[in-house]
Amino acid sequence: MLREVVREIIEAQPDMEVVGEVPDPVELLVAVKDTVADAVILDLEDSEEPGLASHLLAGYPNLTIVGLAPNGKTAFVRPGRREIVDPTGANILSALRQASMSPCSSEEQVKKGESP
Fold first, then answer.
1. Nearest to 96, CA basis, from 55, 67, 57
2. CB contact at 8 A, 84 and 95
3. What is the extent of the structural domain holding 80?
4. How does pLDDT run across 75-115, given as a tens digit for each residue?
């Protein structure tokens, strides 16, 4: 559900575009290879980072990955494994923008109201 909210927020941005959605990891790997994507939003299970994120970054180091837990309480941005504190749609959008501008250390947290 949070993924759909984030998609709607991204689609409402004049400088961002959703270029596709895929239902499974294999299709995602093909889509990332065939599509010029700057970011991928992943659903997480049990609030754990999937190995898929690491696999994607190995092949596409400049790709921004946002992982969302189904409970809506946990989210992260990679590279850097930065936690999104209070993962509301606005904070996730802010984290996407920050990640696309400059990489940060793994210790950094993207907090509500911070600007790059």
1. 67
2. yes
3. 2-101
4. 888 877 788 888 888 888 888 888 877 544 333 333 334 44
